[in-house]
Specification:
about 180 residues, mainly alpha, three-stranded mixed beta sheet, globular
Length: about 180
């Protein structure tokens, strides 16, 4: 080894450290913006994308979120992932509340949209949803804990699954990351 920190460790350390700084300073929108953009970035690594994506990263984001976030595995919140669409020609996966309304609002407009909001406090529930009104509130403290857990699960997968490691390395090379990767 040449003494350089592996790219995977450095990237995940920077991601978690930057979000932690925002969380400590009550910069809730900043913390959520970073977490959602980190998810999108990691989704590109998980997909092994090695070309410019002309469309949005919706499908990659949803796949990563489903795979690594405990919230996505809680069946009580299926509507968080798959918002039913009125157009019968579209599949349920064509609409993802956490991506389309929450992530896109925070990242592109720096505010949540379509009745979505951030709350905080570990004594409060992770998610509040009202399907009749379309209201969605995500507790940032719970989301941050889930985010850190997701980073850890992804890192373990990269280190222990040759297919995931190969996709990670290809994406890192495409982006010009220095070696060693793992």
């Amino acid at each position: 080894m040449d003494g350089k920190e592996p790219f995977l460790n450095r990237m995940l350390r920077w991601m978690s450290h930057d979000v932690n700084i925002c969380m400590a300073g009550d910069a809730n929108v900043g913390a959520m913006t970073l977490m959602l953009t980190d998810i999108a970035a990691l989704a590109g690594f998980y997909a092994g994308r090695t070309e410019l994506k002309l469309q949005n990263d919706h499908d990659e984001f949803v796949l990563f979120f489903e795979e690594f976030f405990d919230l996505a595995k809680d069946k009580r919140y299926d509507q968080l992932i798959y918002k039913l669409v009125k157009d019968k020609k579209k599949s349920i996966k064509d609409r993802c509340i956490i991506y389309d309304d929450f992530r896109c609002g925070v990242v592109h407009e720096h505010l949540m949209k379509q009745g979505t909001a951030i709350d905080k406090g570990l004594e409060k529930p992770y998610v509040f949803m009202s399907l009749s009104s379309g209201e969605l509130t995500i507790n940032i403290d719970h989301f941050f804990a889930d985010y850190l857990n997701a980073l850890s699960k992804y890192a373990d997968r990269v280190r222990n699954d040759a297919n995931v490691a190969d996709k990670f390395k290809k994406r890192a090379e495409y982006l010009g990351a220095y070696q060693p990767y793992l």
